[in-house]
Amino acid sequence: VQGGNAFGAAAIIGTTDNNAIDVRVNGSRVMRYEPNNVSPNVIGGSPANSVTAGVRGATIAGGGVPTGSTDPDYDLEAPNRVTDAYGSIGGGFANRAGDDAGTTTDKAFATVGGGLGNAASGPASTVGGGQINVASGYSSVVGGGTSNIANGFASAIGGGSSNTASGTFSSIPG
């Protein structure tokens, strides 16, 4: 039986400087905590998962695969990336929250729940899952499915395949 540590008061694990903390298992990073004066970034999963420099408040819960690695069961492997402030990715791989256009605050609050190759690239946009879906309109949503694009302001697609919701407040159930 492995023992643990007992603390009589609040325990602190961390640094007193402005450097990130990596948690490693078998020599490989599984979790990273990046400091930021406003809101830190939390990056879990593959060591290839990343948050663009200058982004704050980002979360990648897990998933991701290094580009070029060969997953024995799935194609199109790539890391998960958050490129704009307060973006979140739950898991899967090859997902992106933000537009990756160099400015780290213009497409903030984008979220990808998981899946494969999804991009929430509009401000406050969401892709729940599925594969190769894009939510690029302001406050747009794609629930899932495959190859769907919600690029209208506050547009929504529930699922299905190859749908496009481009009008303001447009909706496609699936």
Description of the structure:
This protein has strands spanning 21-25, 28-34, 41-44, 50-51, 59-60, 81-82, 88-89, 96-97, 111-112, 119-120, 126-127, 134-135, 141-142, 149-150, 156-157, 164-165, 171-172. The chain is built from no helices and 17 strands. The strands form two sheets. The protein has a ten-stranded mixed beta sheet, with no helix packed on it. A seven-stranded parallel beta sheet has the order 4-6-8-10-12-14-16, with no helix packed on it. The chain is mainly β. A hairpin with a 2-residue loop joins strand 1 and strand 2 (28-34). It starts with 20 loop residues before the first strand and ends with a strand. 0% of the residues lie in helices and 25% in strands. It is globular.
Give a brief description.
The protein has no helices and 17 strands. It has strands at 21-25, 28-34, 41-44, 50-51, 59-60, 81-82, 88-89, 96-97, 111-112, 119-120, 126-127, 134-135, 141-142, 149-150, 156-157, 164-165, 171-172.
For this entry, give a set of tags.
mainly beta; seven-stranded parallel beta sheet; ten-stranded mixed beta sheet; 0% helix
Provide the fold topology.
Blueprint: E1 21-25, E2 28-34, E3 41-44, E4 50-51, E5 59-60, E6 81-82, E7 88-89, E8 96-97, E9 111-112, E10 119-120, E11 126-127, E12 134-135, E13 141-142, E14 149-150, E15 156-157, E16 164-165, E17 171-172
Parallel strand pairs: 3-5, 4-6, 5-7, 6-8, 7-9, 8-10, 9-11, 10-12, 11-13, 12-14, 13-15, 14-16, 15-17
Antiparallel strand pairs: 1-2, 2-3
